[in-house]
Design goal:
mainly beta, globular
Length: about 130
């Protein structure tokens, strides 16, 4: 079973930047598709970004495209989310997720992910 641990969250002013990290263990990370989701108070789980196991193909929600960048290091077994130009509406708990499905992975569908981290809080406030 894959275990995921997020870090890097915190308090940041609007327009600022943060980089989240997700360390994976207990699985074949190099063959695992990874995603970032977030959940704001009173709202459901929202897709943010995803990256295929190769690191070549990435996907982004329209709300973060051009501001966020997802990347991975298959040697360190870590996936990153670089967040620039942060807005108030980016405030949420951010979760990383892993999927070892090979043929039926839908990057923005949380039901196709089998492992989740505990989450890290990102608060954008002035």
């Amino acid at each position: 079973q894959v275990q995921l641990v997020e870090s890097g969250g915190g308090l940041v002013q609007p327009g600022g930047s943060l980089t989240l990290s997700c360390a994976a263990s207990g699985g074949l990370f190099s063959m695992t598709n990874m995603g970032w989701f977030r959940q704001a108070p009173g709202k459901g789980r929202e897709f943010v970004a995803a990256i295929r196991w190769s690191g070549i193909t990435t996907y982004y929600a329209d709300s973060v495209k051009g501001r966020f960048t997802i990347s991975r290091d298959n040697v360190k077994n870590t996936v990153y989310l670089r967040m620039n130009s942060l807005k108030y509406e980016d405030t949420a708990v951010y979760y990383c997720a892993a999927s070892q499905r090979t043929m039926n992975w839908n990057y923005n569908d949380y039901t196709t992910y089998g492992a989740w981290g505990q989450g890290t809080q990102v608060t954008v406030s002035s």
